[in-house]
Amino acid sequence: MSASHQLGFLGLGNLGLAMALRLIDSGFAVVAHDPSADRVDRVERAGATAGSAHDVLDCPTVCVATPDERALEALLDDGTLTAGSGARTVLLHSTVLPTAARSLAARLAESGIALIEAPVSGGPAAARDGRLALFLGGDDETIAHADTVLAALGDRRFRLGPVGAGSAVKLANQLTMFAAVDALHEGLALTGAFDVDPSAALEAIAASTGDTWVGRHWGFFDDIVADYDSSGSSADGRPWRKDLREFIDAAHSASLSAPLGEHLHATVGDRIEADARAHLEGRTP
């Protein structure tokens, strides 16, 4: 698959927009669709072609970065995505339940379309630079065929097993990340109570056994919260709530308990949003 290959892109949200721009910069002929005219205009000005969902699904390879699986399910339900469309491979970047990914893969296979799970981690800045981590689930041959697209997006690509595996690892990553967020909020409250500057505490922790990606990128969520707030994104659809809810549901579907996931789902989203808004207002929470 060459970089001049026509590539469909469905979903230009916070992360999807950055991914689409990266693919355009990498030489792909991107056909993009999103409900937001402003976001479509941004990728058009960068060199993409704006199109309908039908136009996107006529491309041989389609990247899907919608908030969840419902948009793709709707396109299957209404007959837009069938054997008659041009799509042969769908790269699913959305964070979804492993069971949802398997269901989509089975439905697509009925029309001769392969699905690769490729949820990502790293954020919009990493997406623009091609430094995302990708959690891949699917057939090895199909993944290898799509590697030019995947390599443009991420320099760390993990083949984890069949469809379902990529989503399971992405949800495990989300649990781990949000646990670190919660722990650092609590830890920095303690250090602040004893007059330690937050940056000094974070530097010391990063050089010690408490080192985490979250600690080294403290403030990462500030701009993301601002973007969600400005776009009117629903509170329940934000990853610190949606992804943790999906982790809990996935655990329960496998007859596992998820006490930490349940605790974080109830607490960490409010902390992230309050902290981000306080920083953006120029004050310390």
Automatic annotation (TrEMBL):
Residues 164-266 form the 3-hydroxyisobutyrate dehydrogenase-like NAD-binding domain. InterPro entries: 6-PGluconate_DH-like_C_sf, 6PGD_dom2, 6PGDH_NADP-bd, HIBADH-like_NADP-bd, HIBADH-related, NAD(P)-bd_dom_sf. Keywords: NAD, Oxidoreductase. One of its GO terms (molecular function) is oxidoreductase activity. The lineage of its organism: Bacteria, Bacillati, Actinomycetota, Actinomycetes, Micrococcales. The active site is at K170. This is 3-hydroxyisobutyrate dehydrogenase. Residues 6-158 form the 6-phosphogluconate dehydrogenase NADP-binding domain. It comes from the Bacteria.
